[in-house]
Design a protein that fits this description.
The protein is α+β, with helices and mostly antiparallel strands and about 220 residues long. The chain contains seven helices and six strands, in the order E-E-H-E-E-H-E-H-E-H-H-H-H.
Length: about 220
């Protein structure tokens, strides 16, 4: 379906008509029903089902209406509103099937460049409004989790090991009543009195040595 825009000067006034029809012949029939005995070309033609947010471009089609006009070099021009030049070509042949294979020219006015820019801006705005934010969750990296836990355990172990000589120094300077110094001294004595305690000290030294090597590698 296309919309045909007709205008006819009647006296001092200009009568305008918008007729929706499949072809120009159907539009002429409706025009005749309005009281016009002789048909005349529409001012311009545009599709009915064009997108609301898309501005149509203007195209002028010049052709020879008959053989006599072709010999005299007289062209007839009709204006279409469409999205592209190919669309205009198809619409013109629908309205004038007898012109198939005949000479014609399709002109695109310079104002169509501005229409293309506005349509491109509208397309970008619609794309931005419909774009969905990227809500994809980041994958949990198990290796990073273990590395973080290992770092905290290492730091805590080194802190506890580092307190032992400080508490022993406090016992030497301030006596057995210094903070937890007496507890540390008592536990060290118990460790040295049994094989299990000796193994415990060896185990503790191994742990300290292990974490010390890890720290050196990280640096």
């Amino acid at each position: 379906m296309k919309k045909y825009f007709f205008s006819k000067k009647v006296g001092k006034k200009v009568a305008k008509h918008e007729i929706v029809a499949e072809t120009l012949s159907d539009a002429y029939l409706e025009l005749k029903a309005l009281g016009y005995e002789k048909s005349f070309l529409p001012d311009y033609i545009e599709p009915v089902d064009n997108p609301d947010d898309l501005e149509l471009k203007t195209y002028n089609v010049s052709y020879y209406a008959n053989q006599k006009d072709a010999l005299d070099g007289i062209t007839t021009t009709i204006t279409y509103k469409a999205n592209s030049m190919k669309s205009v070509e198809g619409k013109f042949l629908e309205d004038f099937p007898e012109q198939a294979g005949n000479y014609r020219e399709i002109h695109s006015p310079l104002e169509n460049y501005a229409v293309d820019r506005r349509n491109a801006e509208t397309k970008n705005e619609n794309a931005d409004s419909t774009a969905t934010p990227n809500t994809q969750m980041k994958k949990l990296n198990i290796l990073n989790v273990f590395k973080t836990v290992n770092t905290y355990v290492q730091q805590l172990t080194m802190l506890l090991v580092g307190l032992i000589p400080l508490l022993l120094l406090g016992v030497v300077i301030f006596g057995d009543d210094f903070f937890l110094g007496n507890v540390v001294v008592w536990n060290i004595q118990n460790l040295l009195d049994s094989m299990a305690g000796f193994v415990g000290i060896i185990t503790l030294l191994v742990i300290v040595h292990f974490y010390t090597r890890i720290t050196q590698k990280d640096k």
